[in-house]
Design a protein that fits this description.
270 residues; alpha/beta; 34% helix; single chain; TIM Barrel
Length: 270
């Protein structure tokens, strides 16, 4: 049985002085300064994390390129698989990000606006490098392709873009299946509704997508502790659990999280 992966993530922006910094927020808003990206990357590399994710959280919204110089510094400190996302819209963007030290790129807005980018990236660099990030929010109506019932109400999941700032009208489950067919090697599924709440992952969202695809799924947004990872692994069959706040602020360590899961029969790398 494949081991489940535990992945810390940092959301990076620039502060008022133009210095890159890690921020943590709720529902992609109300961002709070959390730390230095390079120092945090080094600490997570030494903590037993299976992989590491670096997201330039305003690159797509502001039209900026990913902070490649910071990526290079992070890559120098990280010797586990590194995924980098933010503002990636072209094959050249993918190439530059991989050259800076990333092992994989995470693409959201660029792929939604031009799905052919997935095919092009997979052909040029291999599917294993292409992670499609699905930033989904709940819609309580019947306008989507895949309707689930939540608390007695019909619901579907809409893809958003530009860091969750814009809706697209695209059903997230339909999009996940298309991304897989175009060559995505992994899906990074974020819940806009659960982001930063620590109330647990959006299990209906995660289950809807894992049921629809064979591509590995990273569950993101809402993790409040190891019990939430246990739930998303056992109830939604996610392949990896991503978390930020619980690790950033020392509420739980990677080691504690893995021990909790292992004690309950979830296969993890120790």
């Amino acid at each position: 049985m494949l081991t489940k992966r535990i992945i810390p993530c940092i959301d990076v922006d620039v502060d008022e002085d133009g210095t890159p910094a890690v921020y943590t927020g709720v529902n992609f808003e109300d961002l709070e300064y959390t730390g230095d990206p390079v120092a945090m990357a080094k600490a997570y590399n030494e903590s037993g994390a299976d992989e590491f994710v670096f997201l330039d959280i305003t690159a797509s919204a502001d039209g900026r390129e990913t902070m490649l110089s910071v990526v290079e510094q992070v890559a120098d400190e990280v010797f586990i698989p590194l995924t980098v996302g933010g503002g990636i819209r072209t094959v050249e963007d993918i190439r530059e990000t991989l050259r800076a030290g990333a092992d994989k790129v995470s693409i959201t807005t660029g792929a939604l606006e031009r799905p052919e980018l997935i095919n092009e990236g997979a052909r040029a660099f291999g599917s294993q490098c292409i992670v499609i990030s699905v930033d989904a929010r709940r819609r309580y109506d019947e306008d989507g392709d895949h309707i689930v019932e939540i608390d007695g109400e019909p619901c579907w999941f809409e893809c958003t873009k530009k860091g969750g700032r814009e809706g697209t009208g695209i059903d997230a489950v339909t999009w996940a299946s298309e991304a897989e067919s175009r060559g995505a090697g992994e899906l990074f599924v974020n819940s806009i509704d659960a982001d930063g709440t620590k109330d647990g992952y959006d299990i209906p969202l995660m289950r809807a997508i894992t049921d629809a695809v064979d591509t590995p799924v990273i569950a993101s947004s809402g993790c409040g502790g190891p019990e939430d990872m246990y739930e998303v692994f056992t109830e939604a069959d996610a392949d990896a659990g991503l978390a930020a706040s619980i690790f950033h602020f020392g509420e739980y360590s990677i080691e504690e999280t893995k021990a909790y899961l292992a004690d309950r029969g979830v296969p993890v790398r120790r």
